[in-house]
Amino acid sequence: MPLLIKNGRIITADADYHADIYCSDEQITRIEESIDPSDLSTDTEIIDATGMYIFPGFIDPHVHIHLPFMGTFAKDNHESASRAAIVGGTTTFIEMICPAPEQMPLDAFNEWQSKAQGKSHCDYSFHLGVVRFDDLARDQIRSVVRDHGIASFKVFLAYKGALDISDENLFDLLTLGKELGVITTAHCENATAIDAMQRRLLRECKTGPEWHEPSRPVQVEAEGVHHLATFAELTGAHVYAVHTSCAAAIDVARDAQSRGVKLWVESVIPHFLLDHTYAERPGFEGAKYVMSPPLRERSNQEALWSALAAGVTSAVGTDHAPFDFNGQKDMGRDDFTKIPNGIPSIQERIDLLHTHGVKTGRIDLNTLVRVASTNAAQIFGLRGKGTISVGADADIVIYDPGHTHTLSANTHQSLVDYNGFEGWEVTGRAHSVAVRGQVMARDGKFVGDSTGRGRLLQRQSTHF
Ligand code: URP
Ligand code: ZN
Ligand code: ZN
Questions:
Q1: Residue 464 has pLDDT above 80, yes or no
Q2: Torsion angle, alpha carbons of 199, 200, 202, 208, to 10
Q3: Which of 96, 231, 347, 412 is deepest in the core (most CB within 10 A)?
Q4: Which residues contact 197 (CB under 8 A, 6 or more apart)?
Q5: At what angle do helices 299-310 and 247-258 cross, to 10 degrees?
Q6: Ligand 1 site, residue 292, Cβ cutoff 6 A
Q7: Ligand 1, atom 3: nearest CA belongs to which residue?
């Protein structure tokens, strides 16, 4: 059904103006000062967006949905996670494929795609996690890139003995990335240092969630970013540091960028808003707030906001990694190293950024669009996404900037049993969300049908 959005204020990465938008055949086909509905076919759906912002659909470049991790599986599936995404204004996500150490890349790609296809309500892509990197794996990695439109890798410098990549393999993979025009995303924390510090803390009977942060302090992350940047500099590869959490790591990244290293920086919602005291909450409540890199001293938060406003940081994702408090987080009741890592926020990201970024004056509306949509589309080659222009996909968020509501596990769409932002009041909510022209959320409710019409996006590298 065609869609006409009238009287809205269109906000993109670099523009802010009033106009009407007409969408048909899944794309934006007209943007004009005023479009007369009587000229359109009678089945056109019309939304009056007076007083609303019109944003391009938001893109979350860092989510985990099918995630076998730390002896369990993350709680969401593609149906629930994409519902949560859309209700919160996210119309495209990029999920991390996290293969088992021995798993072949093509098997891993097929496993993740079989979970998403026909289930996801919104469009999606994957970062191909590279854990295994022998000759056979290398051939299959080429095939995943060439035949399946995957244009980014993911490596872990952390999680020793489980997912971490050796320096030898990192160097070779970055070299392959450069050859293929593929950007490599990386979790930057020094695995060996963390392993040693975790063992030391446990020997001292420091077993609670409050010891998670001291086991991986800011130096460990700054070293990780420095390591990635150095390897990128030596190979000429393009790299992207995920979930950068602290001033020390941002400083290293800024230095590397200023000497020409092709390094992009991402930070994720929990690090902007939550500090280490959440992981220190009594009664094991702190386990809800265990993620890696860990929640930091509050002073780091202003460094993250400043880096965002200054363009050092290009993207804000969520690192949505939902593990139940009851039955999953409590696997680590006697040993913090066994608490599955993650703080979910796929639905809350935009409202939190609007409330704590835009409303406080830390970032403006154009920056919101840039860091939560447009930059991810450009960095990761998502054609037709991240913008409002004629010919673009009709992924559109009609946003009510004055609506207030309270975040809660009782109302969120995710299947996880807690909300890290429980009881937080936020200002702003997606009034309506269209995915390729079809309205799939209204007033905080999912209104799409049961078919998972999301597509695996065929990405085109924008690198090299
Ligand atoms: O704590 C986190 N970040 N969990 C998900 C896995 C990862 O490291 O991204
Ligand atoms: Zn990570
Ligand atoms: Zn992650």
A1: no
A2: -110
A3: 347
A4: 214, 215, 216, 220
A5: 30
A6: yes
A7: 292
